[in-house]
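User: Structure with calcium ion, tokens only please.
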Amino acid sequence: MTVTDKGGNNTVDLCDTTVQRDLKVTTKDGNDTIVIKSGSQVDGKTSLSPGHGNNTITVDDAVIGGAFVFKGGNNVDIFNLERDGNGAGPRTTFMSKTSFKMGKGNDILRIGRAGSDGESATSDDKVTLDGGKDNDTLLADPKTQAGGPNDNLFTQTPTVKDFENLI
Ligand SMILES: [Ca+2]
Ligand SMILES: [Ca+2]
Ligand SMILES: [Ca+2]
Ligand SMILES: [Ca+2]
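Assistant:
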């Protein structure tokens, strides 16, 4: 499934949706919103590229089967992974290589919520968290196996770079 836009501010919302092949969302310079939640599942690769502008991405309670790539633009990207879901709901699971590249701009990546088992992200493969240029904030505990402040369950310690503020 491929979603592209012709400009302006766009919203792409996947709720309880199964994509049996690849998911590719590419939007342009507007302030775009991408939501993947409520049991949504992608069986193939996922690529999210919201372009420049102040973009907001929300992922909760999802299963991402293939490789996952997020590529932010030159402005502020805010990515909320497992921040707004049901604390008793499922975790978001990445089954292949996962990469967040926030790009330029003062970006914010939030992963999980402390003490909430359902609001955490699990990965079976390599995870890269890259803030890119400018003053970026990572709110997570990506080194943690079970039991840390945010309880994210990454099988390998993620590679974290160019985040100036680690919370
Ligand atoms: Ca955009
Ligand atoms: Ca950015
Ligand atoms: Ca950045
Ligand atoms: Ca940075």
